[in-house]
Amino acid sequence: MQVLPNGVHWIPGYLDIEAQRALLDDIRGVVRQAPLFVPAMPGTGKPMSVRMTNCGSLGWVTDKARGYRYQTTHPHTGKPWPTMPQSLTRIWTELASFPKPAQACLVNFYDERAKMGLHQDRDERDLSAPVVSISLGDTCLFRVGETTRSGRTTSFRLSSGDAVILSGKSRLAFHGVDRIYPDTSPLLKNGGRINLTMRVVE
Ligand code: SIN
Ligand code: MN
């Protein structure tokens, strides 16, 4: 485990290849029940470059009319989100050091052109709980800063199996994904990167 200057915890190689494959199988099951959708920015309706879905009792969604929020159902199918697989709840228990279970796991899929702008995770009512994230597939360039947008940022590469924990003073750190490095992992047959972000919402 490495602790970066801004308090971000990074565990390179947290999941070995077998654990990555097992988790990926579970995520495929989630995506079969709750298909990936294209999220849109509040106000402008501009599509984001990632595709996303969720599992757990709540899921994070965004669209032009209603903006960033959590809801209990998939925005297209109207069905409740799939249950969070045990592979994920186990990771939460091991890494979060928090008395409550995660309620939401956001699944982001990045193709080789996708990125994510610098932002804070602050749509949760309970900000005392950490955000635990796992990377699968191609490597990305991850950028993390301070709790103000203009604060100094550091960048590092997140590889398949790495875990990142935003907690304590880094819970509200600005972060984003600047780019994906194609063909850097054999895990996903057609390439790309999956990021799984577990959170307590309320
Ligand atoms: C996110 O902030 O939702 C995703 C971060 C990542 O892809 O590593
Ligand atoms: Mn985020």
What does this structure look like?
It is built from 2 helices and 13 strands. With 202 residues, it is an alpha+beta fold. It has one domain: Sandwich (Jelly Rolls). The protein has a 7-stranded antiparallel beta sheet with strand order 1-2-11-8-13-6-3, with helices on one face. It has a 4-stranded antiparallel beta sheet with strand order 7-12-9-10, with no helix packed on it. The longest helix has 17 residues, at 17-33. The mean pLDDT is 97. The chain binds succinic acid and manganese (II) ion. Succinic acid binds at residues 106, 108, 116, 133, 142, 175, 177, 195, 197.
List the helices and strands and how they pair.
Elements: E1 2-3, E2 9-11, H1 17-33, E3 51-56, E4 59-61, E5 69-71, H2 86-96, E6 104-110, E7 116-119, E8 131-137, E9 139-144, E10 154-158, E11 163-166, E12 175-181, E13 193-199
Antiparallel strand pairs: 1-2, 2-11, 3-6, 4-5, 6-13, 7-12, 8-11, 8-13, 9-10, 9-12
Topology order in helix (H) and strand (E) letters: EEHEEEHEEEEEEEE
Show unreliable segments. none
Global mean pLDDT: 97
In the sheet with the most strands, the strands line up as: 1-2-11-8-13-6-3
Number of helices: 2
Q: List ligands, each type once.
A: succinic acid, manganese (II) ion
Percent helix range: 10-25%
Give a short account of the largest sheet.
7 strands, antiparallel
Domain count: the total is 1
Q: Say what the CATH topology is.
A: Jelly Rolls
Number of strands: 13
- Name the beta content range: 25-35%
Overall geometry: globular
Give the full name of the CATH homologous superfamily.
Answer: Alpha-ketoglutarate-dependent dioxygenase AlkB-like
Structural class: alpha+beta
Distance between the termini: 28 Å
**Which oligomerization state do the chains in this entry correspond to?**
single chain
User: Can you tell me the CATH architecture?
Assistant: Sandwich
Radius of gyration from CA coordinates? 16 Å
CATH class: Mainly Beta
